[in-house]
Amino acid sequence: MNYQELADxxxxxxxxxxxxxxxxxxxxxxxxxxxxxxxxxxxxxxSMDWMARHGMxxxxxxxxxxxxxxxxxxxxxxxxxxxxxxxxxxxxxQAYISRYALGRDYHKLLRNQLKKxxxxxxxxxxxxxxxxxxxxxxxxxxxLAQKAGLGWTGKHSLILDKxxxxxxxxxxxxIDLPLPVDTPSEEQCGKCKACITSCPTNAIVxxxxxxxxxxxxxxxxxxxxxIPEEFRKPMGNRIYGCDDCQLVCPWNRFSPLTDHDDFHRxxxxxxPDLIELFSWDEARFLKNMEGSAIRRIGHGQxxxxxxxxxxxxxxxxxIVEALKMRKGLxxxxxxxxxxxxxxxxxxxxxxxxxxxxxxxxxxxxxxxxPRDA
Length: 373
Prior knowledge:
Mean pLDDT: 92
Shape: elongated
Low-confidence stretches: 369-373
Number of strands: 10
Oligomer: single chain
Order of helices and strands: HEHHHEHEHEHEEEHEEHHEHHHHHHH
Helix content: 40-55%
């Protein structure tokens, strides 16, 4: 078998399936094991216990799928047109949702395309061992992507490519064919620390090292408990994920828009008004988020995140009334609603003067703040 010709064909077939770039690497990630263990020992994975549960299997693809000798790493761009970065972040009455989650859930889409790639290879070589992964198993996808030449690991821990920045998904196809490997990418961040200094919660504790417990993406998506109060103000209007470290990255000036309609902003998120999103009951949330990655956080966590954003929004009697209507659904949600109401009340205090009594503030909150107050 001519493995070089097969590798070349695989890259052609992958592009036909919608991937923008594909690379091939071996399975040796031994150099990353010590750093992985240190990250886990520091507790930077937060409540994501599954990251520690599998031990060093994350750095050993051949243990995950015995017989694996190569990994095909694939990239699919997701930056949608009309991403509305500035307009959403600058308007505190609207919700900011991470750009990757505006359209359909990428997990199934990428996995299906990787499966088709495996089937296409099978037509060429006959039966062989393969298995696709898209955030579905304990695997160090970013070191694999760098080793396969898809980009280098930026200081924000995401993969960066000089031709397209970082607005892309990664997927892997583990195979038992000894294909020739690609040249690993070299780090090109240099002295730039824009991502580190722009992080709202100082979650990037060192080059390439993120403390998930401080990261707004983790806190709004992976974590379902009470958000520590120190991170609520920095959340601003970010109700699902955070893109700040990518927004300031100079390499993202070259990011192409996605060709996939599936990643375009869905209709229900065209005008993400906080009060409107907060008004969704569970049935409407599930319907509007059908096929979305957002659906997996559940309605309660959705409300929790929005309540924090409403606390950070300018005073509005409509916000106050909406928050009060949701009290009593859960202890976790009530904790955030009470905080949000207090933030709204503080703004009334600033409007009316510091000498106003607490009882008077409550009466104003209940009746609505007069325009001439």
